[in-house]
Amino acid sequence: MEFMLDSANLKDLEHGMKYYPVDGVTTNPSILKADLPFDYFEQLKAIKALCGARTMHVQLAAEDFDGMMAEAEEIWQQLGKDVYLKIPVTEEGVRAIKEVKSRGGYVTATAIYYPFQGIMAIHAGADYLAPYCNRMENNDIDFVTIIEQLRDLIDRDGYKAKILAASFKNVRQVTAAIYAGAHCVTIQPALLKTAMHSALVSDAVAAFSKDYKTVRQGK
Ligand code: E4P
Question: For residue 152, which of 6, 10, 117, 160 sits 20 to 30 Å off, Cα-Cα?
Fold first, then answer.
């Protein structure tokens, strides 16, 4: 599996990469907005530098094909062609996915709420597809079943696409997505902190630590 950080905060990314097995970084305009002010491409370049060999996923904000391709060109020029372009699975987006792939670029198909968007992204050649798990759940869309079925389709027909489950608001959703067959998850640093800071665990560790001191003192 792969594990990514859903953040544009340099301090959080540095911390996450130092402590966890991080394979990539995902951003979108709303995530970037949380860290303003900065120069857009300077910030993305700083994130890319932190990523090194990890994958970096940057969202295209245009809603039409020409605008998406103009943004893709700019990102390729500024950041290099190894960046994964996050392209929403709309009609214009599917056209852009095909075009980016035909030009040798990488695609993370994003804003996936429905099975058919996933199917279309897989067949259009997307490298990753990002179902928005919490947003789906908020709208009574069963993301677990959809991930299971998309994974079956990928495996059955031998597609290369990987499911990059995104938009999590609790740890339960993350584990559910992984067990359903997501190849990859992207998590906000705050949620990662919640996942790794349980009172049950820290109480157990503290008790062992205390007993160890007693044992070493031999009394
Ligand atoms: C990441 O690729 C997605 O854009 C992100 O996880 C969406 O998260 P949100 O639903 O919290 O905005």
Answer: 6
Amino acid at 197: H
Half-sphere exposure of 45 (CA within 13 A, CB side): 10
CA of 219 to the centre of ligand 1 (A): 53
* Residue 16 region by backbone torsions, left for phi larger than 0, else alpha for psi between -120 and 50, else beta: alpha
Q: Hunting for tokens 């499911």 — which residue is that?
A: 163
Q: Which atom of ligand 1 is nearest to the CA of 166?
A: 6
Q: Hey, where are the domains in the chain?
A: 2-217
Express the helix, strand and coil content of the chain in percent, nearest 5 each.
55, 20, 25
Q: Please give the chain's pLDDT, 219 residues, in tens.
A: 999 999 999 999 999 999 999 999 999 999 999 999 889 999 999 999 999 999 999 999 999 999 999 999 999 999 999 999 999 999 999 999 999 999 999 999 999 999 999 999 999 999 999 999 999 999 999 999 999 999 999 999 999 999 999 999 999 999 999 999 999 999 999 999 999 999 999 999 999 999 999 999 987
Q: Is the pTM of this model over 0.90?
A: yes
Superfamily of chain region 2-217:
Aldolase class I (3.20.20.70)
Kindly list the catalytic residues: 86
108 Cβ inside 6 Å of ligand 1:
no
Whether 188 is in the pocket of ligand 1, judged by its Cβ within 6 Å, is no
